[in-house]
Amino acid sequence: MTVPIWITLLNIFGILAAAVLLAALLTWGERRLLGLWQDRPGPNRVGPFGLLQVVADMIKLFFKEDFVPRFADVPVFILAPAVVMATMLLSFAVLPISPTIGVIDLNIGLLFILAMSSMAVYSVILGGYASNNKYALLGGLRAAAQTVSYEVFMGLSLMGVVMLSGSFNLREIVSAQQDGWYLLPQFIGFVVFFIAGIAESHRLPFDLPEAEHELTAGFHTEYSGMKFGIFFVGEYLSVILISALITTLFLGGWLGPWLPPLVWFSLKTAFLVLLFILLRAALPRPRYDQLMQFGWKVMLPLSLLNLLVTAGALLWIG
Amino acid sequence: MTAVIFYISAATATVATAMVISSRNAVHALLHLIVSLLAIAVIFTLYGAPFAAALEVIVYAGAIMVLMIFVIMMLNQGDAAVDQEKAWLAPKNWYGPALLTAILLVQLLLLIFSGAEESAQRIHYIGPTEVGIALFSHYILAVELASMLLLAGLVGAFHLARHKRIETSEAPDAD
């Protein structure tokens, strides 16, 4: 454990910068891809391929009026967007990106990420509460119910992986997949985690907390300027985080032939992010009660069954 | 280093807990409670129990507090509740609790200074495996009792929330 200090610092700031930049870039990437799938160009005016659209959006958001409604609960209103950013970026600290890249090798890394994602709920709830607005409140209530219920299956679906690898340490989980990815033995876990991940990051088709056809913009109705921007970037950060986590847990992380580890990790994560966006383009939004029923009546039994079968098989093999 | 972090998080926890009691707005009080729980999680990590710390954040700060905020948001009482709370926090209501806590404080100080300070220096790492083994050997009875209690709660909640079969066209989707 004698890593020079500058490598540690490079790791910390490199991952921080990469995560934020990629999340910002993903706002452009998503719009381009949606455009591709919907037979239209998407943003292509600013810079090559519209790549500088992000910069233009950012300049716009920074120069907008930073409006705080006078009926809002001001400290909580300001705290809410900060929470999502902080928790998401903290989660990136324990992600093992390659054998040498990664900020901290935490023994309970997986639990740490689950803890951070359960803290991220507050951003949405508090945003909805502090706005003191009916739409925002409804969005916040939905977010609270949705996230709390999907968190249950999210945790349970991962326990199969933990049982197989015998560790909460993300690096050890990756190393345990030398002989084969957990995608096959834990396929149910993978599916449940993927769906729960969509619900956790409030992405379409599970973006009921901000469903614009019924709730204006849900919990961030009253937010404008960069505060809205932070919510927005936080959502993309969580998409990247969930994709990276699935890569680590089910797709063997950085493991792969020929190419260097970093490239494998990025390729797998990028593929999953692509899948997230494709789902958004392809699926309609369910009704809220359908969402909750699906969660408790399909996902929970499935993840419990997966847990039971995995434990039984492990005992059988010995 | 450890001592410095300990005192910072202990002070955070104490101040936050005081704010929980004296805060007039219910949501602000809960936010302070979350801060207090997080500070205690830091102390747990510091003294070799990261698993307990993670569970504290996931279960207490993450799940239970969310449910409390959920209920408060659902009731959404607004300014009336703040006024009511202000009336309850009048100085004359502080005497009784202050006296009781003072007695507890004296007891605590007596215990601390009576030399019960063994093994405070040794940090003993307790990982997930140790917690699991302890839960399912030494504390198995408590685990089973808790599971029965939770099952009773679950059945009760299910009974309360059960759909009465009403013969209307607007039934939720069949399954």
UniProtKB/TrEMBL annotation, chain A:
Alphabetized, the UniProt keywords read: Cell membrane, Membrane, NAD, Oxidoreductase, Quinone, Translocase, Transmembrane, Transmembrane helix, Ubiquinone
Kindly list the GO CC terms recorded for this protein.
plasma membrane
Q: Which domain of life is it from?
A: Bacteria
Picking any one GO molecular function of the record gives: oxidoreductase activity, acting on NAD(P)H, quinone or similar compound as acceptor
Function as written in the Swiss-Prot or TrEMBL entry:
NDH-1 shuttles electrons from NADH, via FMN and iron-sulfur (Fe-S) centers, to quinones in the respiratory chain. The immediate electron acceptor for the enzyme in this species is believed to be ubiquinone. Couples the redox reaction to proton translocation (for every two electrons transferred, four hydrogen ions are translocated across the cytoplasmic membrane), and thus conserves the redox energy in a proton gradient. This subunit may bind ubiquinone.
What the record says about family reads: Belongs to the complex I subunit 1 family.
Looking up HAMAP family in the UniProt record yields: NDH1_NuoH (MF_01350)
Q: How does it assemble?
A: NDH-1 is composed of 14 different subunits. Subunits NuoA, H, J, K, L, M, N constitute the membrane sector of the complex.
**Could you tell me what this protein is called?**
NADH-quinone oxidoreductase subunit H
- UniProt source species: Microbulbifer thermotolerans
UniProtKB/TrEMBL annotation, chain B:
Q: Keywords for this entry?
A: Cell membrane, Membrane, NAD, Oxidoreductase, Quinone, Translocase, Transmembrane, Transmembrane helix
* Pfam name, any one: Oxidored_q3
**Keyword Transcription regulation: yes or no?**
no
Its subcellular locations are:
Cell membrane
User: What catalytic reaction does the record list?
Assistant: a quinone + NADH + 5 H(+)(in) = a quinol + NAD(+) + 4 H(+)(out)
Read off the InterPro entries from this record: NADH_UbQ/plastoQ_OxRdtase_su6, Nuo/plastoQ_OxRdtase_6_NuoJ
Mind telling me which residue stretches traverse the membrane in this protein? 6-22, 29-47, 53-73, 94-116, 136-161
In short, the EC number is 7.1.1.-
The membrane-topology field of this record reads: Multi-pass membrane protein
Top EC class, one word: translocase
The Gene Ontology terms for molecular function here are:
NADH dehydrogenase (ubiquinone) activity; oxidoreductase activity; quinone binding
GO CC terms, sorted? plasma membrane
Similarity remark: Belongs to the complex I subunit 6 family.
Role according to the record: NDH-1 shuttles electrons from NADH, via FMN and iron-sulfur (Fe-S) centers, to quinones in the respiratory chain. Couples the redox reaction to proton translocation (for every two electrons transferred, four hydrogen ions are translocated across the cytoplasmic membrane), and thus conserves the redox energy in a proton gradient.
Outline the subunit composition: Composed of 13 different subunits. Subunits NuoA, H, J, K, L, M, N constitute the membrane sector of the complex.
Q: What protein is this chain from? A: NADH-quinone oxidoreductase subunit J
**Native organism:** Microbulbifer thermotolerans
